[in-house]
Please model this.
Amino acid sequence: MKFYSEKLNSIFDSREECLEAEEKHEQKVAEEKAKKEALTAERAKRAKEVEELYTAAVNAKKAYDDALKAFLKDYGAFHATFRSADPFFSLFDLF
Model:
């Protein structure tokens, strides 16, 4: 007698073989789901970190701009050297 698995859409020679194959399939699906959920959680966590760092960078840039504006108002000029390798230079494209 043959046994058909609707879950796997397959035919098996014995009931035990069919149940074993379905159980393995369910375990595999559960493992894949857990892995996907873990990756989604990790991505959300890292995205939040990036957003927080971006907000901090924007706030730091605003503080820099305000301080520079005040300095220029008081003294008229400010001399600074910017290098293209400077991370601040590439982040905000000062020129």
In short: Helices lie at 15-75, 87-92. The chain has two helices and two strands.
